[in-house]
TrEMBL record:
Active site: E330 (5-glutamyl coenzyme a thioester intermediate)
InterPro entries: 3-oxoacid_CoA-transferase, CoA_trans_fam_I, NagB/RpiA_transferase-like
Protein name as it appears in the record: Acyl CoA:acetate/3-ketoacid CoA transferase
Comp. bias intervals (Polar residues): 521-537
Keywords, sorted A to Z: Transferase
Region described as Disordered: 509-537
GO BP of this protein: ketone body catabolic process
C-alpha cells in the first residue's frame, strides 16, 4: 500500500485497520497509546499489525514504546505484537499486562527496558517540543538509576538510555528522547479533520503528548475511534487532540470502553450512586485496606496503587470519605472512587480528567498528601520491590514517581504469599495456613523504592500487612503493631527474613479491622456486553 501522505490541516483519510498496519515499516519505532484493561487501547490496529506480520513476515525489528501496561494480562494490547522477529526492542512503563512480551524479554529474544510511567509520559511531552530529553530526579536510587540497572531488564539489553548528570550541584537523571516513526492511538470520536474527543474514555492518558512527539520526529499518527463526526461539529472545548497531528483515522464501531465491559457510564461522566459501587469483602485484603485507610486525613489528596492498595478506595466509599478527600490516579483522574483490578486507571464519578503528563507533574511537585502502594518484597533497609516478582518482570508503572514525590507513603501487602489462609472474626485473626513465600527478605530482588532516598527526602513510610505494621526509621524498619490473636514470634518474627527493630511497646492493631464489613443492600451493576466477543466477562 502507498504510504499515507496528508496535509497538516484538512480532511484526513479514513482507513481500515489493515491499511493503518501497512504504514509501519521494518525498523520503525512505534509508540502505542493506551493503558491496561483496555483503557484507550487501539486493539484493532495492534491486531491488524500482528496479522500482517503472521501473513507476510513484515514488518520486522520494530521498537515498541508505551507509557503504561497495555493489555489485559492475557493476549491483547502490546501482547498482540509479542512475536519473535516482529519486535527488536520494547520500552515500557509497565509490563505485566502483556505476559507474552514479558516472555520474549525473559527468554532474551528482545531488548527490554522498564522506565517509570511518569517519566515516559513527561518524556513524550518534552520530545514533542524537540528537547533532547527529560531531566528529573525521579528514579534516583532505584533500578532505573544507571548505577544499578539503568532500567535494563535482561542481559541482551546493553545500550544506556538514561544517565546521571549534575545540575546546580544536585544529581538528576537524564532520559534520552527517542526517535519515533509511528503512533497508534485511540479516542472515542474523530471529526473528518482528525480532531479527537474522548467522551467515553475512562482517562485522558497522554494521547496529545504522544502525537506531538511523533510529529516532531517526522512520524505518522493514526487513531482508532468508535464514531466519525462531520468536520467542525465537535465542541472545541471537548477536543483534546487537534487534527493537525493526526494522519489517518480507523473507525471501529464495536470498540469497547474497557477490556471488561462495553460501557460503564460512571467512568465517563455519569454520576453513579455510591451504593452501587462494589464492596470490599471480608478477608486479609480488607484488613490491610482498613488499617491503611486509617492514615487518611480529611481534605487529603490521595493516590492508590494497583492491587491490594486499591481496596482503600472501596473503604473510603463505604465510609462516605470520598466526599471529604480526593483520589488522584496517575492516568489523569482526580476525585471520585478509583476502579480496581483490570480496570485500574478508571474512576467512578471523577471530578476532573487531565492529561497524564500534567498529573505526574503534580505528583512530582508534592501535590499528593499520601500514597498507598503495593509491595512484592521489603528488605531490612526498608527498600521495596514492586517491579519484579519471583524473578518475573512486572514493571514499575507510576510507582517510582509517586513513591518519590509524596511525603507520606503507605505500602500495602501481605506478610507472606502463596497459600496463606486465615480465620478472621470477633475482632481477632488466626493464621490457619502460612504462606509459602516470605515477602520480607534480607535484600530485595530489585529496588523500586529506595529507603535511603526516602530518608534523604524526610519521607514518612509505613508498611501495612494483614497481621503487622512496620515503619521506616534511620536504622531500618521497626515493627510497631501486631494484630489481635497473632503470636508475635511464630506468626510475625519467624516469617521475616531478618530481625526488625521492635518498638517498645508494640501496639495492637484496632480490633474493628477484624470485624465483618457493614451489611448493604445488593445492587445491579453494568455488565459486559455479551454480544461483543472482544470483551471479558
Amino acid at each position: 500500500m502507498t504510504a499515507v501522505a496528508t496535509a497538516r490541516w484538512g480532511v484526513k483519510p479514513i482507513l481500515t485497520p489493515a491499511e493503518v498496519a501497512a504504514q509501519v515499516t521494518t525498523g520503525d519505532t512505534l509508540f502505542v497509546g493506551g493503558s491496561g484493561g483496555g483503557l484507550q487501547e487501539p486493539s484493532a490496529l495492534l491486531l491488524a499489525l500482528r496479522e500482517r506480520f503472521l501473513a507476510d513476515g513484515d514488518p520486522r525489528d520494530l521498537t515498541i514504546w508505551h507509557c503504561s501496561g497495555v493489555g489485559d494480562r492475557d493476549t491483547t494490547g502490546v501482547g498482540f505484537l509479542a512475536l519473535e522477529g516482529l519486535v527488536r526492542r520494547a520500552v515500557g512503563g509497565h509490563w505485566g499486562m502483556a505476559p507474552a512480551m514479558v516472555d520474549l524479554a525473559e527468554r532474551e529474544l528482545i531488548e527490554a527496558y522498564n522506565l517509570p510511567q511518569g517519566v515516559i509520559s513527561q518524556l513524550m511531552r518534552d520530545t514533542g517540543g524537540r528537547r533532547p530529553g527529560l531531566i528529573t530526579p525521579v528514579g534516583l536510587g532505584t533500578f532505573v538509576d544507571p548505577r544499578l540497572e539503568g532500567g535494563k531488564l535482561n542481559a541482551r539489553t546493553t545500550e544506556d538510555i538514561v544517565e546521571v548528570i549534575k545540575l546546580g550541584g544536585q544529581e538528576q537523571l537524564f532520559y534520552h528522547a527517542p526517535d519515533l516513526d509511528v503512533a497508534f492511538l485511540r479516542a472515542t470520536t474523530a471529526d473528518e479533520l482528525g480532531n479527537l474527543s474522548f467522551g467515553e474514555e475512562p482517562a485522558m492518558l497522554e494521547a496529545f503528548a504522544i502525537a506531538q512527539a511523533v510529529k516532531s520526529r517526522g512520524g505518522k499518527v493514526f487513531v482508532q475511534v468508535k464514531y466519525l463526526a462531520e468536520a467542525y461539529s465537535l465542541p472545541p472545548q471537548t477536543v483534546r487532540v487537534p487534527g493537525g497531528v493526526i494522519d489517518g483515522i480507523a473507525v471501529v464501531p464495536d470498540q469497547p470502553q474497557t477490556a471488561v465491559r462495553w460501557l460503564e457510564p460512571g467512568f465517563s461522566g455519569a454520576r453513579v450512586p455510591a451504593g452501587s459501587l462494589p464492596q470490599l469483602p471480608a478477608g486479609p485484603r480488607r484488613v490491610v485496606a482498613e488499617r491503611a485507610a486509617a492514615e487518611i486525613q480529611p481534605g487529603s489528596m490521595v493516590n492508590l496503587g494497583v492491587g491490594m492498595p486499591d481496596g482503600v478506595a472501596q473503604i473510603a466509599a463505604e465510609q462516605g470519605w470520598d466526599r471529604t478527600l480526593a483520589f488522584a490516579v496517575e492516568h489523569g483522574q482526580i476525585g471520585g472512587v478509583p476502579a480496581g483490578g483490570l480496570e485500574f486507571g478508571a474512576s467512578y464519578n471523577a471530578a476532573a480528567s487531565i492529561d497524564a503528563p500534567y498529573q505526574f507533574d503534580y505528583f512530582d511537585g508534592g501535590g499528593l498528601d499520601i500514597a498507598f502502594l503495593g509491595m512484592a518484597e521489603v528488605d531490612q533497609n526498608g527498600n521495596v520491590n514492586a517491579s519484579r516478582y519471583q524473578g518475573s518482570i512486572a514493571g514499575a508503572g507510576g510507582f517510582i514517581n509517586i513513591s518519590q514525590g509524596t511525603q507520606r507513603v503507605v505500602f500495602c501487602g501481605s506478610l507472606t504469599a502463596v497459600g496463606a489462609r486465615f480465620d478472621i472474626r470477633d475482632g481477632r485473626m488466626e493464621v490457619l495456613t502460612e504462606g509459602k513465600i516470605k515477602k520480607f527478605v534480607p535484600q530485595v530482588t530489585q529496588v523500586t523504592f529506595s529507603a535511603d532516598r526516602a530518608r534523604e527526602l524526610g519521607q514518612e513510610v509505613l508498611y501495612v500487612t494483614e497481621r503487622a505494621v512496620f515503619r521506616l526509621v534511620a536504622e531500618g524498619i521497626e515493627l510497631i503493631e501486631v494484630a489481635p490473636g497473632i503470636d508475635l514470634q511464630r506468626d510475625v518474627l519467624d516469617q521475616l527474613g531478618f530481625q526488625p527493630i521492635l518498638a517498645d511497646p508494640i501496639r495492637q492493631m484496632d480490633p474493628k479491622f477484624f470485624s465483618p464489613p457493614p451489611a448493604r443492600p445488593s445492587t445491579t451493576s453494568n455488565q459486559p456486553n455479551p454480544s461483543n466477543p472482544t470483551q471479558k466477562g
